[in-house]
Amino acid sequence: MGQYTEYEINQAIEAVGKGMSLRKASIEYGIPKTTLRDRLHGTQPREIAFEDYQRLSIDQEAKLAEWVRIQHALGLAPIHQQVKVFAERILHAMGDTDPLGKQWIQGFKRRNPSIKVQRSRPIDSRRINGASTEVIRDWFNLLAIPEVKSIKPSNRYNMDETGILEGQGSNGLVLGMFEMKSVRKKQPGSRAWVSIIECISALGHALDPLIIYKGKTVQQQWFPLDLGPYKRWQFTATENGWTTDDTAVEWLQKVFIPQTLPQGKEEARLLVADGHGTAQHKLELLQAQVASTAARKRRAVQLDPNTKFANIKDIQQAQIEAGEKEDITDGFSVSDLPSEAESCIVVASGCS
Description:
Shape: elongated
Largest sheet: 6 strands, mixed
Structural class: alpha/beta
Oligomer: single chain
Helix content: 25-40%
Number of strands: 11
Radius of gyration: 29 Å
Strand content: 15-25%
Distance between the termini: 48 Å
């Protein structure tokens, strides 16, 4: 049989006490028949029988397990070493200064099945702190506004920023609640080293991402020779690798407007952006940019890869100049600002 908890054993014992057969209770609750029989005859649980051999008492471990669950709920699920350090501090307060053994954490998890090892998914601390019930409820009230509800799902888009921190993977193993499949773990801020602006529609249509590096210009040595997988991606650089107001406006011009043109020119589009940091100011700039582009006609702009967005052709050209490639068909990209930008774009700020 598989793993079972003390609670399930007690449930099986209670069922037998109410008249259920030992065999049926064993099958229904997943408890080995011999284990259930021994417990009915007064055998103590393993944890109690061997409590004298444990460094922490059952009550102390139960409180430590509850602390892990609370930290999980706060978005601060601890790693193995943090739990071990916490346990050793409890021992030190009792006068026990010997370190815990290498297998202690495994025994702790076995004795406390309410927690388990899970893979964490980093989430910006501002998102957890700003995600109150009241804020979320008010946000859905905004989505119920008739003008918003009338926008087709295919024209509803959500843009967001994420980041990749050099030398740190996106997933890590932590301890959390047994009943949860994954853990969201706070991190100081998600836009570090390389930022990514991503956008997707309510029907799952993803726009090309914008990658923002930290630096004065986009450098060809940052990219592999095979640029095929990144053919439609856009690249730029800012002083700190974060999104700037100018970058946000240019993303609207070069990515959002051209790639979200509705079938009908009179159809509105909804762009949902988070309200963290300077996002509200960026949204004001985006709205102003939509108004200013409405009267413009199509015009071709030759991009400078050192100051504007750099796409794959720009990068390939830089690689040729660096001697990494031999031929290219077109060294610079041509970008059109669509006249269809005059179709209404509704910009909304998300939870803050």
